[in-house]
């Protein structure tokens, strides 16, 4: 059995989508999966160093690592009318050079934020620390991600939705906001890469098919930070049927994100999603 190191974030949707493997509901005859959880920017930085075989990433990171990692079609999170939130204290007005806490340099929300607010002074923090940084006055505002968008202090209010920034930039009204994806090391043999994607895709499908049972188990084992009502709401946003296998609209959205980054001088090269997916047709032709 070849060992595959998999990294994902500790937020509820990633825990949910990967749990079918951890619980032994889904597996492989040739690959063994070992997972770890870390905040998304730690995973992004790890991907830049080639630390993991398979890893959750922010879609905005991918053009920096495409030489070393392929994109997976599964375990993806998109916003559609929702997403990260720029929050501040109530009854405050943000100056053009306001100080803001973001969850990481390579996150999708950070890229879109920098385009919309070029004069803001940015500090990067673990996503769990951002709300308190705003409440304490350490920063003027912060962008909340993951479960934090569902509930935050009554002292705070939403200044702007990152979704709204995306809508201003995307041009095509049908495109959802690409947030989190999965990448796989290109140095893996192609047959192993295809099997890895198959297992991860099956895990996301099984999780969705057994949502109520799995959600209850995650709460009983204290594996998520929210109650059942919040968990169901959150999974409905970010771990759903659209997370199993990227469709053409989602792929176009990823392409548009890459175009926006290239147009704004963030990426040195313009790439597209489709050519960087695992070529699953390889096994079909080999076995035909």
UniProtKB/TrEMBL annotation:
The protein's UniProt keywords, in alphabetical order, are:
Lyase, Menaquinone biosynthesis
Provide the reaction this enzyme catalyses. cyclic dehypoxanthinylfutalosinate = 1,4-dihydroxy-6-naphthoate + dihydroxyacetone
Q: Which SUPFAM superfamilies match?
A: Periplasmic binding protein-like II
Pathway stated in the Swiss-Prot or TrEMBL entry: Quinol/quinone metabolism; menaquinone biosynthesis
What's its EC? Answer: 4.1.99.29
- The answer on whether this UniProt entry bears the keyword Signal reads no
User: What's the stated role of this polypeptide?
Assistant: Catalyzes the conversion of cyclic dehypoxanthine futalosine (cyclic DHFL) into 1,4-dihydroxy-6-naphthoate, a step in the biosynthesis of menaquinone (MK, vitamin K2).
**Descriptive protein name:** 1,4-dihydroxy-6-naphtoate synthase
This chain's source organism reads Campylobacter vicugnae
Its gene is: mqnD
């Amino acid at each position: 059995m070849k060992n595959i190191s998999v990294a994902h974030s500790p937020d509820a949707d990633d825990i949910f989508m990967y749990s079918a493997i951890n619980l032994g509901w889904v597996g492989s005859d040739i690959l063994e999966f070992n997972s770890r959880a870390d905040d998304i920017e730690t995973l992004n930085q790890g991907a830049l160093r080639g630390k993991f075989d398979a890893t959750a990433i922010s879609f905005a990171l991918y053009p920096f690592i495409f030489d070393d990692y392929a994109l997976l079609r599964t375990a993806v999170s998109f916003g559609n009318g929702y997403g990260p939130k720029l929050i501040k204290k109530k009854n405050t007005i943000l100056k053009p050079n306001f100080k803001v806490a973001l969850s990481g340099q390579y996150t999708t929300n950070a890229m879109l934020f920098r385009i919309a607010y070029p004069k803001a002074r940015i500090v990067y923090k673990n996503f769990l620390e951002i709300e308190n940084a705003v409440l304490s006055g350490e920063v003027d505002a912060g962008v909340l991600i993951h479960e934090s968008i569902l509930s935050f202090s009554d002292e705070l209010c939403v200044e702007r939705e990152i979704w709204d920034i995306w809508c201003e930039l995307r041009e095509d009204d049908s495109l959802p906001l690409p947030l989190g994806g999965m990448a796989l090391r290109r140095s893996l043999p192609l047959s192993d890469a295809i099997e890895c994607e198959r297992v991860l895709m099956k895990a996301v499908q099984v999780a969705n098919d057994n949502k109520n049972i799995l959600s209850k188990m995650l709460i009983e084992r204290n594996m998520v930070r929210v109650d059942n009502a919040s968990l169901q709401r959150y999974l409905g946003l970010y771990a759903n049927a659209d997370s199993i296998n990227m469709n053409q609209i989602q792929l176009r959205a990823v392409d548009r994100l890459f175009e926006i980054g290239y147009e704004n001088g963030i990426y040195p090269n313009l790439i597209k999603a489709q050519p960087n997916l695992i070529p699953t047709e390889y096994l079909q032709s080999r076995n035909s």
